[in-house]
Amino acid sequence: MSDPAPAGLRRESRTLLPTVSVIIPAYNAGSTVERAIRSVLCQSRADLEVIVVDDGSTDATPKIVREIAAQDNRVRLIQNPINLGVAASRNRALDAATGIWIALLDADDVWLPERLEQLLKRGAAYDIVSDDLLIVRSTEMHQPGLPAGDFSRLLASRS
Question: Bridge-partner residues for 101, per DSSP?
Answer without folding.
Answer: 20
